[in-house]
Amino acid sequence: MGIFKVYIDGACLGNPGKAGIGVVFYNEKNQQICEMSHYLGDATNNIAEYQSLIAALKKALEIGLDNLFIYTDSELLARQINGFYKVRNEELKQLYSKAKKLIANFESVRIFHISREKNKYADKLAQQAVQQSTV
């Protein structure tokens, strides 16, 4: 199998506040193969970002993907997972550990920081999850 692209985002109304995640998967031909939008309840923006990564990794394992390029507009998440920033927050440490354990199940996972502009669809899905909670 080729490399699958995954765009992830977490969003919240207030920080902390009502939070949601958005995840979009594309195959090696750049065709969308899956999307997810999920309400988390109250969380911080960083927790929502980590939850989007964890949800993406779980889904990728579920559908049998081995090689992932994951794109996030959270510089903190990308730099922590890639080992450039230390994880200091206790709650984030737990999510970081969970994400790293999931990553170990793949042949290859690379995480890239991208601009918000390039992550619009995952952001839209995360925002929809938050909005559905207020209906």
UniProtKB/TrEMBL annotation:
Gene Ontology MF: a single term: RNA-DNA hybrid ribonuclease activity
Superkingdom to which the source organism belongs: Bacteria
InterPro entries: RNase_H-like (IPR053151), RNaseH-like_sf (IPR012337), RNaseH_domain (IPR002156), RNaseH_sf (IPR036397)
Pfam families cross-referenced by the UniProt entry: RVT_3 (PF13456)
Sequence ranges assigned to domain RNase H type-1 in this UniProt record: 1-131
Protein name: Ribonuclease H
Organism: Candidatus Desantisbacteria bacterium CG07_land_8_20_14_0_80_39_15
